[in-house]
Known about the structure:
By secondary structure, the protein is an alpha/beta fold. The chain has two domains: about 120 residues, Response regulator (Rossmann fold, 3-Layer(aba) Sandwich), CATH 3.40.50.2300; about 130 residues, Winged helix-like DNA-binding domain superfamily/Winged helix DNA-binding domain (Arc Repressor Mutant, subunit A). It contains eleven helices and five strands, in the order E-H-E-H-E-H-E-H-E-H-H-H-H-H-H-H. Strand 4, helix 4 and strand 5 form a beta-alpha-beta unit. Helix 7 crosses helix 9.
Amino acid sequence: xxxxxxxxxxxxxxxxxxxxxxxxxxxxxxxxxxxxxxxxxxxxxxxxxxxxxxxxxxxxxxxxxxxxxxxxxxxxxxxxxxxxxxxxxxxxxxxxxxxxxxxxxxxxxxxxxxxxxxxxxxxxxxxxxxxxxxxxxxxxxxxxxxxxxxxxxxxxxxxxxxxxxxxxxxxxxxxxxxxxxxxxxxxxxxxxxxxxxxxxxxxxxxxxxxxxxxxxxxxxxxxxxxxxxxxxxxxxxxxxxxxxxxxxxxxxxxxxxxxxxxxxxxxxxxxxxxxxxxx
Length: 279
């Protein structure tokens, strides 16, 4: 991560925005390209500067954070900015709403300002690696330029399918009730996407899938396995039972016996292959 990272801070509290700015200025790679205090101005500044990272409060005048997310979601950015919600609102429904509208991470105030630069570096780094991994994994070798336009069209279509599938899997996880703030959420999303796109059945979970996710998120395969396990246990105990029953035989007897990581990932991926991708 050698390039400068352009950041816009959006918070209705000017003093708090200044604290955030002071904290981020401790990292030479961070460049603050805007501090704004209402949602309408925020959208204009985001369009103008096309930042790498947006730090967004949800409680703001004129347009709140949810309205900002809804509006910038309709705008084509290349690359997409990393959106970090930093707010005092800890309501689970609001968290899910923000993440469904494109927020990549959710931090609840008060938050240790000394940790904020580190967390942003981690999230932005994970995002870059994950985006690169999503684009590169399973991609067919590009043919020489003299090949027909049909091959280029096929490749574009594959990339479009992947992008649509990533959004679809995110929605599935949210409907199941997988807590979006858990690290296992992102790992599960990638695992299900890759298995859904795998034409040879399923990806061997220990030898290939965990290491692949670990590389994308700059962590270890063991941490990936444990985080996914934790997320599955959480959703099995507290998730949406009606949605879970669409994929698994869910009963009170099984409440304390969640599926294995492999079973959870492959079951959802296989259903996506049969329903969503078959269309």
